[in-house]
Amino acid sequence: MTHGYGQQGGPAGGFGAPPPAFQPAPPPPPPVVPGPEFVAADEYNGLVVDSEGAHFEQGPHAIDLPWSRLRTVHFQPLPSGLSVTAVTHDGPVFACQVRARRRSQVATWSAELGAVLQHYLQGR
Questions:
Q1: CB 80 within 8 A of CB 112
Q2: β-bridge pairing 45-50 and 53-58
Q3: What is the pTM of this model?
């Protein structure tokens, strides 16, 4: 059997089996449902609690703690501000303190953060 130019003994009559069909793209992750959020910051520290979890910043250090990693989040009003503690499922505990400029700010933060935490922690 003679082969023409460019044929190397492949299957007769074409280019072989067709390529496999394209696989459909995996579905996109579900969107983060917006919910209530709490934000507090002072000159050096800050914290955010929202639908994604808790974010703490202390000076140059920061950590994002998604709700799937958190067992619970506690807060305590202090005379000078607010202390927030996040407890993870695997053991580590993270804390962040934010100073308030006015004593009345502590009461406002406490009420707002309490409502936000209740929203995200209910049913746990």
A1: no
A2: antiparallel
A3: 0.72
